[in-house]
C-alpha cells in the first residue's frame, strides 16, 4: 500500500507542476495541455 501512496503523490506533484507551468505561460489548463506538457518534458529530459 505504501508504494501506491508514493506513486499517487508523485503523480499529483507532476500534475500540480504542470498546472502551475501552464498558468505561468498563460495557457488553458486542460487534460490535453497537461498531457502535451508531460510528453514535452519527458522527451527533453525534465
TrEMBL record:
Q: Which organism is it from?
A: Serratia odorifera DSM 4582
* Name of the featured protein: Uncharacterized protein
Per its UniProt entry, which superkingdom is the organism in? Bacteria
**Lineage, broadest ranks:** Bacteria, Pseudomonadati, Pseudomonadota, Gammaproteobacteria, Enterobacterales
